[in-house]
Amino acid sequence: MAVRLPAGLIRSLLRFVLKPFLGPPFPVSFQRVWLRLASNANLPSKASELLPLDIESMPAVRARPHGSDPDRTILYVHGGGYCVGSWQSHRGPITHLAVAAGAEVYAPNYRLAPEHPYPEGLEDALAAYRWLLATGLSPSSIALAGDSAGGGLALAAAIAIRDSDLPAPSALVLISPWVDLRCDSPSMTRNVRIDPMLRPSWSRACSRMYLDGRDPGDPGCSPLFASHEDLPPILIQTGSDEIIVDDSIRLEASCREAGGDVTLQVFDGLWHDFQTHAGILEAADEAMDKIAEFLDGQWN
After folding, report:
1. The domain spanning residue 271 has which CATH number?
2. What is the pTM of this model?
């Protein structure tokens, strides 16, 4: 039987163990190591196997749950402010998503800023999608998913796919997506005290490193400001207490105005990327089930 932890305990651990160490004054190299260590608390699902592999020269992993449907595939783009994170730090949500959805999940380690600013991470996400297509998978069997900055990259990739000659994926799943790198939405101030994970100073530092002098309102970097017409069906999940909850709310409104098929789920009293605690947080498991239900509706 899985061991569940109280939401309040996880919130406190994030506030004291993770939040102070993401962002200034700590260097990115330290943040990468610290996130990797802290993420060990998010245990991967035992119902899924993990197979390391390379995708277009990117270290990657495939999560394959026992009894998965070979016609269900998710390309997962990890979060971390475009500067930290990897499939290793996201083993928990990758495997729990695979099990919930009954799908194979591929997660590449795309290049990170500041060494590799925009558009290199986006180019890697698109390269991974092309790689999946080249294996013979039908685009109708592939969903794009990502959390935080990875949600922004997944959306930016879907927009780039729409504007190219590539076939569209079946769906988008955006978990706490960071889609506005201007970092000036009202929730940045409104929720600064209650978000147990993110600090505005970290968001702004990551934005500067990823942008590398570009306009933060550039739609390629901040896909909130792109055209949202003719995109696949989208599920957006966010916590009410996060400093970037307004990104999700505004994105949903823009997609709906563009005539898109979009669903926004705001989880009251929860924080940024709470889904990464699937397996130990009941609300995270419920959110994964909602993602699986959404994907079932697109794949069936």
Report:
1. 3.40.50.1820
2. 0.98
